[in-house]
Amino acid sequence: PPPQPAAMTEAAKTVPETVIARRKAIAQKRKKVLASRVKKVLARRKAHQEITKRAKKYHTEYRLAERTVIRMKRQARAAGNFYVPAQPKLAFIVRIRGINGVAPKTRKILQLLRLRQIHNGTFVKLNKATINMIRMAEPYLTYGYPSLKTVRELIYKRGHGKVNKQRIPLTSNQIIEKELGKYGIKCIEDIVHEIYTVGPNFRKVNNFLFPFKLSSPRGGYRKKTTHYIEGGDYGNREEHINRMVRQMN
Predict the structure, then answer these.
(1) Which of 35, 54, 94, 211 is the most buried (most CB within 10 A)?
(2) Which own/partner contact pairs does 184-187 have at CB distance under 8 Å and 24+ positions apart?
(3) What is the DSSP letter of 97?
């Protein structure tokens, strides 16, 4: 005899246990994925707030240092004296000549400064040893004292980090935090601050940064074989390095 309608309804209501188990597993997986996503969003938001707070603190610090120098100059002028600024601690060096006719000692110094190619640039902490090295290789270099704007533009535009011995562009703060987080360096503004102020972790941060690969300067060179103060290009150009970097960046 044909099945009754009530019996058909009961059969339709009974769902196999395997289907119920699969549905439960899918629901649990979806719940875990959603919880993980929410956790990542909250962590990212918290990191962003911390980075913003650090950037504001650095901005206040830079502005205070700038105002202090201006105040000291005014006080010295009012007293009829001269204000002598502190010796610069940071230099930016650019290699302006190639490999032809380089003496072995000079070549070694250029390797130690990580300037293996023409138009490579690096930040250097100025002390007695580095100043002597720069002087010995001076005909192949031009250098000076970069401003905060120059440091920031170089790192933001041309900055590449050393990750597993590979040259990786600094497109995310996560790359920086992974490599330098143990030193308290978590974002690109931390790198700018550490380099510009020559902080305690300057060496670690500078070694993390690959040498900057710059372009030929717009308008070309004047004369590479003549010193800058004689109308050429090589040697110390002090604050005028900022204009040179902008032509090459």
Answers:
(1) 94
(2) 186/47, 186/50, 186/51, 186/54, 187/51, 187/54, 187/55
(3) S
Dihedral sign of CA atoms 192, 193, 197, 202 in order: negative
Question: Distance (Å, rounded) from C-alpha 245 to C-alpha 121?
Answer: 9
Query: What's this model's pTM, rounded to 2 decimal places?
Result: 0.80
The neighbour count for residue 120, using CB atoms within 10 Å, is 19
The pLDDT tens digits of the residues spanning 25-67 come to: 999 999 999 998 898 888 888 888 888 899 999 999 999 999 9
Task: List the structure tokens of 154.
Answer: 């170089």
Q: Which two tokens stand for residue 132?
A: 């002597």
Q: Which helix (H) or strand (E) element contains residue 213?
A: strand 212-213
